[in-house]
Amino acid sequence: MPVSFLFVSSLLVSATVFSASANADVKANIGFEQRNFISDALLAEQTDSSSSLTGLIEAYRDFDNNAQRLVFSASGRVDENDSERNHIDLAELYWWRQFEQFELYTGVRKVTWGVTESVHLVDVINQTNALENIDGEDKLGQPMIELIAVRDWGTVEAYVLPYFRERQTPGLSSRLRPPLPVLEMALYESERKQNHVDFAMRWSHYLGAFDVGLSHFVGTDREPRFIPVVEEQGGAALQPFYAQIRQTGLAVQATVEAWLWKLEVVSKSDNFIGRHTSAAGGLEYTFYSIAGTNGDLGVIAEYQFDDRRAQYAPISQNDAVFGGRWAFNDLDNTQILALFSQDVEYGNRFFSLEASRRLTDSWTLEAELRAFANADVRSPDYSFRNEDYIQLALRRYF
After folding, report:
1. Contact 291, 277 (CB under 8 A)
2. Read out DSSP for 129-170?
3. CB 74 within 8 A of CB 89
4. What span, in angstroms and rounded, lies between the C-alpha atoms of 383 and 15?
5. Is the pTM of this model over 0.85?
6. What 3-state DSSP class applies to 197?
7. CB of 172 within 8 A of CB of 128?
8. pLDDT digits over 264-320, tens only?
9. Which of 277, 319, 309, 261 is CA-nearest to residue 119?
10. Per-residue b/e over 266-294, b at no fewer than 16 CB within 10 Å?
11. pLDDT tens digits, residue range 53-88?
């Protein structure tokens, strides 16, 4: 069934179900994205540009004197060249209930714990939606039952995650993909595969200026390991493998006047590479009312570390990140975020620029630039060395 038909059907159903109440709201947008790559593709089957239509629906309805809420959101994409990027994702569909001693969430949700700007190590609940972007910010909805209890000594969250969602990758005609085809059939350490039940807990609390979150996860790793294999036709390919992991995470954010200090640390272990540690930390200092205007400039500096090496090394294993966030605070909500990353070990450089501005009450223009430089053949992102691109997106909000 075409993705566009599913998306329009979802819009009509959500508008019918959620809008027939004063305690309800439905928001949606459709967009056109144009992405152009600056350099020629490394592989003959890849294209140098692509156009996409995107859509997003968000809706909620409160009832029972606001003690219960039903939430729905879905997003979709139709890509000009790559049918593997065509998809519609049920990002959220859950029921929330406030009880006397705790809150209960049941359904599909997204959960965010991270505090740093350049990478979110502690976010382990949701799978990354790699079809949308390479920055890891887009997530797939995760089926779950969640209990939240708020006490004077902190907030406790408990999760039961009964189903696992695999990471999808772009097809052969797309850029920004692994150098070899990725097989659809994944391997799992658990015999229950996608039906393995995962568990997570988190405690969070404010301690003076510090916002502290301590989490623990047991279950299927959201980060696949790609194993080189030979296909039946004789060609080389990559097969995803999902291990069972135990991950403990710490996220700390401190606000001291104009300073924002951030830290994420993760200790993860499994039966194949043992225990390893990842960390990201740094600061953001905000200069308010630049040159007498309403604009604020936040200066960002972070460091990323991971002790995995060889075939297990991630891209952010030893990198320094610098950047700035310019919020114009104008009626058009103009914003610019620029980040520069320097790999201390391999010398790779990465530059990212994101900007957005409201054109009218209904239309928004977004721009995105990614550039890779000085790629080292030993680095994990060497296959992205020709993948510099510029993207413009025009969205209509309803």
Report:
1. no
2. -TTT-SSS--B--EEEEEEEEEETTEEEEEEEE----PPP--
3. yes
4. 44
5. yes
6. coil
7. no
8. 999 999 999 999 999 999 999 999 999 889 999 999 999 999 998 888 888 888 999
9. 319
10. bebebeeeeeeebbbbbbbebeeeeeeee
11. 999 999 999 999 999 999 999 999 999 999 999 999
